[in-house]
Amino acid sequence: MLQKISLGGWVESSIYETAPIGPQDQGKFFNQVVSFWYGKGSRKLLNYLKGAELFLGRHPRGHWEKREIDMDLLYYGECILNRRPGPIIPHPLAAVRGFVMVPFAEIYPDFCDPLLGKPIKKILEELKNSGAEVEFKKVETDDE
């Protein structure tokens, strides 16, 4: 679905299996970061992501509860947006989540977080050194 709206520049990380955040009786999560060019603005992209979640069968539940799919808008280039209504960009928790930084660092280690002014590889290194590391298992696919 995302490739259909991409204007090019498609890059995707490997898929990683991690323990859930929140209630632990949810089973493992699968995490991946994709990057692509999009020209209609961050609000339209976020609306598309939320619509795609519904289309793919996501059911409304409480915060941190299990879900069929979850798509987040992490960054929109070097854009910084922090006003409502509208998306908060960069995603407020992206830089503190190992399950985001590991796949992101795989595809764009030198991308600089516009708020922190640090490359993703440095953010990931600091996360690992802080003891906040999440256990990861790279999912093997037929493509590998």
TrEMBL record:
Question: Per the database record, which ranges form the 7,8-dihydro-6-hydroxymethylpterin-pyrophosphokinase domain?
Answer: 12-109
State whether keyword ATP-binding applies.
yes
Q: Does the keyword Iron-sulfur apply?
A: no
Query: What keywords appear on the UniProt entry?
Result: ATP-binding, Folate biosynthesis, Kinase, Nucleotide-binding, Transferase
Which pathway is this protein engaged in? Cofactor biosynthesis; tetrahydrofolate biosynthesis; 2-amino-4-hydroxy-6-hydroxymethyl-7,8-dihydropteridine diphosphate from 7,8-dihydroneopterin triphosphate: step 4/4
> Entry's Gene3D superfamilies?
7,8-Dihydro-6-hydroxymethylpterin-pyrophosphokinase HPPK (3.30.70.560)
Protein family (similarity comment): Belongs to the HPPK family.
NCBIfam families documented for this protein: folK (TIGR01498)
Question: What protein does this entry describe?
Answer: 2-amino-4-hydroxy-6-hydroxymethyldihydropteridine pyrophosphokinase
Q: What is the lineage of its organism?
A: Bacteria, Pseudomonadati, Fibrobacterota, Fibrobacteria, Fibrobacterales
